[in-house]
Amino acid sequence: MSTSICWRCLSDNTLKRPISRATARFRPHVYSPTQSFSTTQKAGLDRVTRSRLPPEKGAKRFVAKKKRSGAERSRRPAPGERKAFRKRIVLSNVNALDVPGIQEINANNMGDESLRGHVLRLPGTMVDRLRAAEAFKPTQAWGMFSRPGFLMRKETLELARMVRDISSSDEDSEKTVRMILVGQKESGKSMLLLQGMTMAFLKGWTVINLPE
Predict the structure, then answer these.
(1) Which of 195, 6, 5, 62 is nearest to 203 (CA)?
(2) Is 176 exposed, middle or buried (0-12, 13-18, 19+ CB in 10 A)?
(3) What are the distances in angstroms from CA 72 to CA 69, 78, 79?
(4) How far is 91 from 97, CA to CA, in rounded Å?
(5) Is there a contact between 203 and 107 (Cβ–Cβ < 8 Å)?
(6) pLDDT, tens digit, for every residue of 85-131?
(7) How far apart, in whole angstroms, are the C-alpha atoms of residue 101 and residue 114?
(8) Are 93 and 146 in contact (CB under 8 A)?
(9) Residue 206 CA to chain centroid, in angstroms?
(10) At how many degrees (to 10) do helices 154-168 and 189-202 cross?
């Protein structure tokens, strides 16, 4: 005959006291609480944690990347193409308005004091000769005008007087003028050098330019 009292209950200290049969018959049973569990969440956490850790030594790791649909890769520039684009010189702008009444510089008016503060244009043939001598610079903003020209400043007229004095001197005198241009960045040194080369070409001299 099976008893209604489990063996664990009989080993309890509280049951060592003598109890009556009626009390033992109606003694309630105490069951340990149970709880359902699942390993799905834990497995997911382990997978996330494992993906963040560095791969073990000797283990192979595969990472798949989704390719962009319809993405076109641009053509890489050829060697020297970027430098040529930075160094390119635009000497005219077809969209710029043509200003009427501007004179062209020549051998007769390049030292005229009345032209101080005026803009003189370069003749077409002179532009080609200056381009061949690499007298133009990319930072001189020639592309803002319809035709290249420069401003007749005080320094320009002083340089014109020097050229005129050398031309008017006797051929046997062998007069030589040496000049060093000193100034801050973008103060007009390259422009004054270009003006001097223009005057030398107008006088028929041989010009030797050593660009950067």
Answers:
(1) 195
(2) exposed
(3) 9, 18, 21
(4) 14
(5) yes
(6) 888 888 888 888 888 888 999 988 988 999 999 999 998 889 999 99
(7) 15
(8) yes
(9) 41
(10) 30
pTM: 0.59
CA distances from 77 to 73, 82, 87, 126 (A): 12, 7, 15, 34
Residue 168 one-letter amino acid: S
pLDDT tens digits, residue range 190-211?
A: 999 999 999 999 998 999 998 8
Strands (E), the chain: 119-121, 149-151
- For the chain, the farthest-separated pair of C-alpha atoms sits apart, in whole angstroms, at 151
Q: What is the pLDDT of residue 130?
A: 92
User: CA-CA distance, 88 to 207, in Å (whole number)?
Assistant: 23
Distance CA 87, CA 80 (A): 11
At 53, the amino acid letter reads: L
Distance of CA 21 to the CA centre of its chain: 96
> Where do we find the tokens 């050829």?
78
